[in-house]
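Aim 2, interim progress. The first record below pairs a target sequence with its structure tokens.
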Amino acid sequence: MTTVCHRPEGLEQLEAQTNFTKRELQVLYRGFKNECPSGVVNEETFKQIYAQFFPHGDASMYAHYLFNAFDTAQNGSVKFEDFVMALSILLRGTVHEKLRWTFNLYDINKDGYINKEEMMDIVKAIYDMMGKYTYPVLKEDAPRQHVEVFFQTLAATQPSTAMPADFLAPKKMDKNKDGVVTLDEFIESCQEDDNIMRSLQLFENVM
């Protein structure tokens, strides 16, 4: 059976579409091809790669949501172009671009809103990914409490063990109390929260 290999668009085009230099794109492409020789990664492979970064937890559900955010065409595969466009936003994008991307990650059913069920799924996935060695030890009902905080009250800052966790404790995101958080509410609330703004800056000097 023949394996179909995907060749990415020209690096010049990707350089124009992203915030990376041609040299950086070449380095990223070599790493991507090393992990995914076919030039395309499916969800199962993505989960296996992601799991290596969280050996003490179960990262499979969070990797599933993350994969869907990378898979902009929703066709079950992530090409190098998809990967590098997302990475460009997360590492080099404006605050507004980063927050829009994060909102899209949390908006699981892509209806333009984050509801409590979606946030509960995301929070639980993050807690599972952190694993049993998280300090302080998390209680069974911690995810649900965190979701209530997300929608209603000012939360204490969580330990900065992963960037997404810092997005789960903003000040009263559901401003009009309609049970869902819109993109505008999300962006406004995040920009008012110093912890979230700091977490966005952590990734700016990764490369």
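The second target in this work package is listed in the same format:
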Amino acid sequence: MVVGTSNYWEDLRKQARQLENELDLILVSFSNLCTSYSYSSTQDGRRDRYSSDTTPLLNGSSQDRMFETMAIEIEQLLARLTGVNDKMAEYANSAGVPSLNAALMHTLKRHRDILQDYTHEFHKTKANFMAIRERENLMGSVRKDIESYKSGSGVNNRRTELFLKEHDHLRNSDRLIEETISIAMATKENMTSQRGMLKSIHSKMNTLANCFPAVNSLIQRINFRKR
């Protein structure tokens, strides 16, 4: 197409408006994705042109992939719109009629302002997403550490409890054994003492009988009657 024709300018404006509309739609979806980013986002559905009603709800990993895909598409659209604006500027600068040139420059400025706004919004939203994702990653790491600590503490507590129970059982068994041994020794000492007393009495009676024949005769008669 020959530069300088009105059809060329209108075609460039048409391309710019189409790209601007596409950018407006995708930036809205991109902003919604970034502001709702969370590992618990499975409770929130995404219903736009990037997901259908049958698409599973997004989790953190799916959101990361969606973010990368949308960011690349937005960068490509911005690059295309920048190229169209450059062509519009080239055409406006080559226009020969001053009044026409001023009108073209006014239109070009409006398109450049829109491009600048979209570029600024994209970089701001992207930076916010990166900050939120970093925070979520940190929180997720902390949660994992806490769960691991709780899990490890639970195992250690159960092991400690079993060890204490086994220790108490052994201590009780030792105490019962010691008590049984003490009773047995006391019984043995008592029986030994009684046996010694009986021997002493018997010895004294024999000595008394040998020294006094009359007493010996009396003892024998007593023993005879007992029979």
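Residues 39-57 have pLDDT under 50 and may be disordered. This observation will shape the mutagenesis plan for the next reporting period.
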